[in-house]
Amino acid sequence: MDRIKLNVKDYVPYAGLILLVVFFTLVTSGDIFGERNLSTLINEAFMIAISSSVLIFIMSQGFLDLSSGAVVALSAAVGAYAAAVNPWLAIPASVLVGLAVGFANGIAVAKFKVPPFIVTLAMRFLIMGVTTQLLADGGKRVPFKMLNWNSTGLRVVTIVVLLAAGYIVFEYTKLGKMCRAVGANEVMARQSGINVGCIKITGFIIVGAVAGLMGFYSIIRTGAATTQTGLNYEFNAMIALLLGGMPITGGPSSRFRNAVVGGLSMAILSNGMSVWGVNIDIQQAIRGIIFILVIAVTFNRKNIAVIK
């Protein structure tokens, strides 16, 4: 009976995805998948699916990262300034900023033993302050020709490559297995010979570097970096993983499919509400309600001490 319950639970996220597709197809009269909205839907899925596919490397360890949205904004700002010198400098500048922040988060967590929730929350406020100073005039535009880089083809190639790489690394390499081991029991993982500190740092570096890359994609899509860039980035990623069936406590039940299925579900939910004409404040309330509900359903109270 336990095995049957487990198998049924595995299929719930897929059923949820199908229900979302059917529901928003009906209430929008098919406009959500129409030609005019398809590009917007792809952009939504692009950002959420990628963010959730890397967040899984630290969330599977039982950690939360509240700074990645601010990292997107800072990376976009630095990338915009770098683009003023040479457009091609925007890519490495954005990624390096994200990588540096991720490394700093990882060091604080692994070496100084500060809880990830506290570290990333403090880093979020610090980065928001720096970004506000950099964008004191309200925003920083990038050269107009960079908008030509914003193509659906480039985004499709990027998401396919990153998802394929994430799937292979998380499911078939030692890194993914060790992330799940740390989430299951950090003490036992350490006693098994796993370098827990290195795993923590690596996870935060991956999340930070990809957040930096998303900062670059934000500026070539909108043409400018603003203080609103990356808004709700980390929360959308967390909700996506939970919608995909991943327990917030992480551990051995974490699977990469959680990121893929959850990312698609969250993208359809967000875009569908916009196409349907739902007020932005109501959308935020709905996200909050969903966040509470999925935590209540997936929360393993035996592992409450794992969440950091």
Examine the coordinates and then state which fold CATH places here, giving the name of the CATH topology.
ABC transporter involved in vitamin B12 uptake, BtuC
* Multimeric state: single chain
Radius of gyration: 19 Å
Q: Please, what is the CATH homologous superfamily?
A: ABC transporter involved in vitamin B12 uptake, BtuC
Strand content: under 5%
**How many DSSP H or I helices?**
12
Helix and strand run: HHHHHEHHHHEHHH
Mean pLDDT: 91
The CATH architecture name reads Orthogonal Bundle
Instruction: Give the total of beta strands.
Output: 2
Q: Which class best fits the helix and strand makeup? A: mainly alpha
Q: What do these coordinates show?
A:
- There is one protein chain.
- The protein has 308 residues and is mainly α.
- It has one domain: Orthogonal Bundle (ABC transporter involved in vitamin B12 uptake, BtuC).
- It is built from 12 helices and 2 strands, in the order H-H-H-H-H-E-H-H-H-H-E-H-H-H.
- The protein has a two-stranded antiparallel ribbon with strand order 1-2.
